[in-house]
Design brief:
The complex is a heterodimer of chains A (257) and B (639). Chain A is α/β, with parallel strands linked by helices and 257 residues long. Chain A has helices spanning 46-53, 76-83, 101-106, 115-119, 125-137, 153-165, 183-199, 211-217, 240-247, and strands at 6-15, 20-30, 35-40, 61-66, 69-70, 86-89, 171-175, 203-207, 220-225, 228-233. Helix content of chain B is 45%, strand content 20%. In chain B, the strands form 5 sheets. A 4-stranded antiparallel beta sheet of chain B has the order 3-16-5-6, with no helix packed on it. A 4-stranded antiparallel beta sheet of chain B has the order 10-9-12-13, with no helix packed on it. Chain B has a 3-stranded antiparallel beta sheet with strand order 4-15-14, with no helix packed on it. The chains are: A alpha/beta (257), B alpha+beta (639).
Chain lengths: 257, 639
């Protein structure tokens, strides 16, 4: 287990209000360069799991070890240094709608800047060039100075990817990146993630709703149900029985083409 | 009976009861107020006699308590409705009337010991003995069976609404008739008795009076009661206008005298009518025409000049064509003379072949010289000449004299509608004497800058502080919550104290003037903008915050890169809106020493210079409207 890039041990998250247990003694490891897809019903704990990894949500119990560093015990400032190498993209894109695309992209560099420079918004020339480069990579070079809310959903998510690219991430957390998008756009976004995984060697943890997408892009799938691990293995091992176990008896598999 | 213990928290029970008691207390208060009001309206001299005896208050308290209890037991009271409670039988059914009555009676009898039962958490006596309970009512579903207004509560609320408006009408001393009364002219008269006046003779009366206004009308009427059988009863009144500030001529017809006229010569006889024109004003009158008119015929004569207080006599050759025949003389028929009163220029004479009769007229009214330096309220003596121009002697009669004051309200509106822009550019000497160069334009500029400065300073202060007043920025630990509470408390308290109160405080602190005004506006702006800003910060999309945290940003960086970009447009909009408010506020804070255009406004108001007030108000309206328009357009562009 020493070669594990990310190791999660007995991770538990209990929300104080209402005593909802979101994660229950969850343990698994992720090797470097994997494309791990997390599947499960809504409320099964996928988002909580991803947010616990970069401690946007504070775990109640358990250990998270990233690249040999136990991040559950880190001080806030040390945690920020860890976070800057963990990219994250969101279901609702989380862009500042009134700001330009390039301004949104540049926020990806905040973790690398001295605070005073960040406070007056003094991004270096190098950062700006890199932002344009990354926008060009996701096909939005000519939209750089357009307000984010003028873009379509797929374009906004590509800005989110460009923002994550700005971090030079080793690990990418994608929290249902395509749930708000139509099928065709979903594939284009997933292909960018696949590209990051293959060409840049970024380890990807993505939570997805559709099993078809998970099968197509994941190198490994884990499934959560009520905060517990119910499946861990390669995509081809998920058969109909397994599917029913994860999604319940009434579920019917839908495919995204 | 284990289930007869109080089914709901004591707090809910007490609160709902307290509301019912409050309603009955209010009704009791209102009834007493109305009783007092109408009692003393009728019996003014018995004021203070309608008082409650010492035992009255406990009676009122007990009575209201009892009414509340009865309402709660017999029907569904307001308090029960508000807290969603219902009285049910232990079996869960609707209680019978007997049970309800028993509940009320037992409650009334056991009130003193109820607290003990409640504290010991024992079943309440009135519930046990009546077999009823107060329980949370099931949520009403569907539409009510009866129209809402026909239910007991509907009737009650209509009654309370009407009652409240009635009470409010009296308490706020609403008096609609006074609105119209104040528009009517006011007249004060006194009567002088004349024992007799022979035909062709005149008598002189001296009337001491006080000039209440700068410009006032004095009216004289001979025989207002109509005691004398005159040949002409419509020519008995004459008037004069006294004007402190203007010295003008005032032409009147002093007398119309028929010469060489003989009743026995009958119709068709030629004769002469002598018209005496008097200038009863102090100033000279230039050339004017005097007309004598009878029937369709008019004779005009010219007068080249008539000095003040002098009279001129003109003779017209006429023919008697009918009987009775009316001759009307009009001075200045072409309206060429600028008189102090142009409505008193005509007089008439009726000649009747058949009967002889007296005919009383007011020949002239003159007054002692007015001194403009003494101003309003100075004494003045009026000299009235009453003449009998008829053919018979007049018996005893009275002469009624009096001031006719135009309503001050009408006067005010007239002046307001006739704005005086004399000091728009040129400084008003009233202020120059105090070493101040105040013209409307100057002060308007000062006012706009006061508002601008207060808005900018206020926004600069409020901007950083507002983040400390936002729950989503501060609500992570105890210290944050404490700061949040403190800041929000500051905003709420300082915002609820009006700018004008702040201005009075600062006027004492730093002295009267614009600085006090700017400080007052700034303080209020900080609090008002701070609250608006904070609420805006609280309503932002939390997504970008998460995103900035996820890339390794600190809390400060989150504010800078995720919060501020989201809130800046609405901050601008609020600030512009506030500037707007500040311009409006700064026009009136001079009332308590805040400086600005109000300095002129309130001085003119106090001096009753409504024309100048009108000019200032028009300028304020123009500026406020412009600011409103500009900031409205800017706000549209921003958001």
């Amino acid at each position: 287990m020493t070669d594990a890039y990310l190791r999660i041990e007995d991770l538990t998250k209990v929300y104080e209000r209402g005593q909802v247990v979101a994660l229950r003694d969850l343990s698994f490891t992720v090797a470097k360069g994997e494309f791990l897809v997390v599947i499960g019903l809504s409320g099964s704990g996928k988002s909580t799991l991803l947010r616990c990894i970069n401690r946007l949500i504070e775990p109640t119990r358990g250990k998270i070890v990233l690249d040999g560093v136990e991040i559950t015990g880190l001080s806030p400032s040390r945690m920020r240094r860890v976070r800057r190498r963990i990219g994250m993209i969101f279901q609702q894109f989380n862009l500042i709608r009134r700001s330009t695309v390039i301004a949104n992209t540049l926020t990806g560099r905040l973790g690398y800047m001295p605070t005073w420079k960040a406070m007056i918004g003094l991004f270096s020339q190098d950062d700006r060039e890199r932002a344009l480069e990354n926008l060009a990579r996701v096909g939005l070079r000519e939209k750089a100075y357009v307000r984010a809310d003028e873009l379509s959903g797929g374009q906004q998510q590509r800005v989110g990817i460009a923002r994550a690219l700005m971090q030079d991430p080793e690990l990418l957390l994608a929290d249902e990146p395509v749930s708000a998008l139509d099928p065709a756009t979903s594939h284009s976004i997933m292909q960018y993630l696949e590209w990051m995984n293959r060409e840049r060697g970024v380890t990807v943890l993505a939570s997805l709703h559709f099993l078809s997408l998970a099968r197509r892009y994941g190198t490994r799938i884990i499934a959560l149900k009520d905060g517990q691990l119910v499946f861990d293995g390669p995509p081809k091992l998920i058969d109909n029985a397994k599917f029913k176990e994860i999604y319940g008896e009434d579920a019917e598999e839908v495919e995204v083409r | 009976m284990a289930d007869s213990s109080p089914a709901l928290p004591l707090k809910t029970r007490l609160l709902s009861f307290f509301l019912d008691w409050l309603v009955w207390g209010y009704v009791a208060y209102g009834v007493m107020y109305l009783l007092n009001h109408y009692w003393y309206t009728v019996h003014v001299d018995w004021y203070g006699t309608l008082t409650l005896p010492a035992w009255g208050w406990p009676l009122v308290v007990a009575g209201t308590l009892e009414m509340a209890a009865l309402c709660r037991a017999l029907g569904r009271s307001l308090g029960q409705r508000v807290w969603g409670l219902n009285v049910v039988s232990v079996s869960g059914a609707r209680p019978r009337l007997g049970q309800r009555l028993r509940r009320a009676v037992v409650w009334s009898l056991t009130v003193p010991v109820q607290p003990a039962f409640a504290v010991l958490r024992r079943p309440l006596l009135h519930e046990v003995l009546s077999g009823t309970r107060l329980v949370p009512a099931p949520r009403a579903s569907g539409t009510p069976a009866r129209a809402a207004l026909l239910t007991q509560w509907g009737v009650m609320s209509v009654f309370l609404a009407v009652f409240t408006i009635w009470l409010g009408w009296l308490i706020a001393e609403v008096n609609v008739p006074v609105l119209f009364e104040r528009l009517r002219p006011v007249s004060t008269t006194r009567d002088a008795r004349v024992p007799a006046l022979r035909s062709g003779e005149a008598t002189t009366l001296r009337v001491p009076a006080t000039l209440a206004e700068a410009r006032q009308v004095f009216t004289v009427t001979a025989d207002p009661q109509g005691r004398v059988a005159e040949s002409d009863t419509v020519n008995n009144t004459q008037r004069i206008t006294l004007d402190l500030n203007a010295s003008r001529p005032d032409l009147v017809i002093e007398a119309i005298i028929p010469r060489s006229w003989d009743r026995s010569r009958g119709l068709g006889q030629p004769f002469e009518v002598e018209v005496v024109v008097r200038n009863q004003g102090p100033a000279d009158a230039g050339p004017f025409m005097v007309r004598l008119q009878t029937g369709e015929t008019a004779y005009d004569a010219g007068v080249s000049a008539l000095p003040g207080r002098e009279a001129v006599s003109i003779s017209y050759p006429v023919v008697l064509t009918t009987s009775p025949q009316v001759f009307t003389a009009i001075a200045d028929v072409g309206n060429e003379v600028a008189e102090s009163d142009a409505t008193n220029n005509a007089q008439r004479l009726t000649l009747d072949l058949a009967t002889a009769g007296p005919d009383l007229v007011i020949s002239s009214i003159t007054h002692s010289p007015l001194n403009p330096d003494l101003g309003r309220g100075q004494p003045v003596t009026l000299t009235v000449v009453v003449r009998n121009q008829g053919t018979a002697d007049a018996g005893p009669f009275v002469v009624r004299t009096g001031w006719t004051e135009t309503s001050r309200v009408v006067e005010m509106w007239r002046e307001l509608g006739n704005p005086d822009f004399e000091y728009f550019l040129q400084p008003d000497p009233v202020f120059v004497r105090r070493g101040l160069s105040h013209s409307i334009l100057n002060l308007m500029v000062v006012t706009i800058f006061m508002a601008l400065l207060a808005t900018v300073l206020g926004a600069l202060f409020a901007f950083p502080v507002s983040f400390a007043g936002a729950r989503n920025i501060m609500g992570f630990n105890a210290a944050g919550w404490a700061v949040y509470g403190l800041v929000r408390g500051f905003f709420n308290v300082f915002r609820s104290i009006e700018t004008i109160l702040w201005a009075s405080v600062f006027a004492v602190w730093v002295g009267w003037g614009t600085f006090a005004g700017v400080l007052a506006l700034t303080i209020h702006t900080i609090a008002a903008l701070g609250k608006l800003y904070s609420e805006q910060v609280e309503s932002i999309d939390p997504g970008p915050l998460e995103a900035v945290l996820a890339v390794g940003g600190s809390r400060w960086e989150v504010i800078r890169h995720a919060v501020i970009p989201q809130v800046i447009p609405s901050f601008w909009a609020f600030t512009l809106y506030r500037w707007d408010i500040n311009v409006r506020m700064s026009t009136i804070i001079a009332l308590v020493g805040g400086g600005g255009i109000g300095d002129m406004l309130f001085l003119y108001k106090d001096e009753g210079m409504w024309g100048k007030v009108g000019a200032v108000v028009i300028c304020i309206v123009v500026v406020v409207w412009l600011m409103d328009y500009i900031s409205g357009r800017l706000r549209e562009r921003i958001t």
